[in-house]
Design brief:
Blueprint lengths: L3 E4 L10 E4 H20 L31 H7 L6 H15 L7 H10 L7 H10 L3 E4 L2 E4 L1 H10 L1 H5 L1
Antiparallel strand pairs: 1-2, 3-4
Helix pairs in contact: 3-4, 3-5
């Protein structure tokens, strides 16, 4: 059986994360190094690739955090597209609750409380979290939930105009 490996990325600190067998992770290591080099220099992905350094392996760590640069939940809810659903709103609130918690996880109640404080009422908060679990945007962690990389990517796509500004 092959050994599990992880390649981690956090854009706030110029890091990416891929987890799988060593061979699988190795296929992405060089591409990520080149992308990180371009991000560090502030170039665009279509620019010529930089010379990549040998890939480095990192120890398992907490999941990457979507950098929202201190934006409040109210601001982010305001910038969600009209097509955003209650499931998307719950995912965003879950991410905010997770980033504020000591154990880097959130509960349905915590996320729903944040939304309620902003005047947003979700019809069925538990069902919204379950739909995020089914979509693999959220996963269970010690009787609580964590936003997955798929969830972070989904939020980044929804908030692209805000994050790129």
């Amino acid at each position: 059986m092959s050994e599990r490996a992880r390649l981690r990325v956090n854009l706030a600190q110029s890091e990416f994360e891929v987890e799988g067998s060593e061979a699988f992770v190795r296929t992405y290591a060089e591409r990520f190094d080149a992308l990180l080099d371009r991000l560090g220099r502030g170039t665009r992905p279509n620019d010529p690739p930089a010379a990549s350094s040998p890939p480095t392996r990192t120890q398992p760590a907490s999941p990457p955090v979507l950098s929202l640069d201190g934006a409040s939940l109210g601001e982010l809810l305001h910038h969600l597209p009209r097509s955003a659903t209650d499931v998307d709103r719950m995912l965003l609130a879950g991410h905010i609750a997770q980033s504020r918690s000591a154990d880097n996880a959130f509960s349905t109640g915590e996320a729903n409380t944040l939304l309620t404080e902003q005047g947003v009422k979700i019809g069925n908060p538990s069902q919204s979290v379950k739909q995020n679990v089914v979509a693999r945007r959220v996963f269970r962690h010690q009787r609580r939930y964590r936003v997955s990389q798929i969830g972070l990517d989904h939020l980044a796509q929804l908030l692209r105009p805000v994050l790129s500004a």
